[in-house]
Amino acid sequence: MIYRISLAKANLWPIGVLSCLLNGIGASCAALIFMAGYIGHSFLHAEYQSIGQEHLNAVTLMRYAPVIDSRHRDRTRRLQAARAEQRAIWDRFPTQPDSLGLLQTLTSLAQQTSLQLRGFRPEETTTLTTHQEKNFAIRFDGNLKAFEDFLAKLKTSGLDCRVTSFDCTQPTVPSQANTSPTAPSSPDVFSIEVHLAVPYRRKTVDLDKT
């Protein structure tokens, strides 16, 4: 009788192992389901936060839309005004440099400021993005105060030009003991060379692309 009971218990051993295996598989499945649920919850939570932020951004844009539109209109008006001013300046540019008119104006200004016009020489042309500039070299004799007055009158003369550079040197005359030019002719008289750039139009320029 004892032998039969032990044999019966021995026959139950595979069932116990199988039960343990099933319990382990069930626990693993439960863990996987929990992890999947957690991951899904995290994903949905992130999506919810993203949607909420997008909604907040949309509400903010709608709130400030009138301000943004007003600023855009103001900048458009200022751009149009700048374009109109650029066009007006462009229309004032001559189609070619007026060398004779420039010489006459410079001669008149030199006479008004007691400068002696000694030279007038056209030089190379500089091509820029929107226009061209004709360069001139002009030489005067006179004192620095007269040259200062000349520059002031040139600025208010309405002449479209700009001074790119100038150089002042004292001319020399031969001394009595030596024919080499070492002695200054006068302590107040200078030889002044001025370089001017006179703008004029280029033939083909699209102002909307400049």
TrEMBL record:
Superkingdom in the source lineage: Bacteria
Keyword presence, Transmembrane helix: yes
Which InterPro entries does this one have? Transl_elong_EF1B/ribsomal_bS6
| Record's keyword terms, sorted | Membrane, Transmembrane, Transmembrane helix
Transmembrane annotation, as ranges: 12-39
Can you say what this protein is called? Pilus assembly protein, PilO
Q: What is the lineage of its organism?
A: Bacteria, Pseudomonadati, Planctomycetota, Planctomycetia, Pirellulales
